[in-house]
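Bench notes, afternoon.
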Amino acid sequence: MRTLPLNALRAFALAVQKGGVRAAARELAVSHSAVSRHLAELERWLGIPLLERDRSPRVFAVTPQGQRLARTTLTALYDIRRAADALREQRSRYAVTISTTPSFAARWLLPRLPALERAYPRLEVSVLVDQRLDDPQNSPSDLAIRMGRGPWPGVAAEPLMDDVLYPVMSPARWKDLGRPRELADLRRLRLLHDRDPGASWQLWREEHGPPELDVRRGARFTSSDLVLRAAAQGLGVALARHRLVLADLAAGTLIRPFGSHAIALDRAYWIVTPHGAATRDAVKVVSAWLRREAEHQRGADA
């Protein structure tokens, strides 16, 4: 244990997980050269190469032995973190942590948590936000809610609810532009783009057109919440997920200028948990509540 290069192992495992030396350096808040030195140190200590250097220098390619070492190291580090977190927090059996995207957390989950608290006063629900689909086996959360086309390998994914996609814009901007109502009018409107691939203007053009719609133009935003806020500020027209934009439509800060035209997104949201993990009673309660909330919204939309 005295000679085990723990810092080098951590840097290498993180570089493999993040897909490169620079990403690992950002995560560790150290220089790129410091991570490179750690990798060289680890290779010298092991006496075998961990990186495939016969490829392009721009490609971070790891040998099979390196992949095995990185997986084992990450598993061990996550085990240590979970043990340390358990000692630091001493969470009660009523504590549940949900991981989801920032937009879903802000626009769907958080507004419903007061009702959950009233129904189950003992529950202590924490929310972690992340755009990525983390490995639940190595995640501090008890369950995750993810958007996309599941299921995914290595996790248990249960469909939560579907969604609908349609254009929205601010009523003031809509009036300023002459109250556009026809889909052909989209050609002269400023498009706002969401990084979510399931809410792209390319999908809209393929489904509804117009064929001449230039989906390359327009501003880009890193979350559904941001793109909807931009639309509410009159910056352009955005493609909205129905589940995330309902409050804006009800408040009148956004409108649907093109009527009932929409794209159906089947199984758009999922409850994701580790495969084969024992589920605590508190987590079962929250999962069942999430399903009831989704069913209630489906009933309200009918």
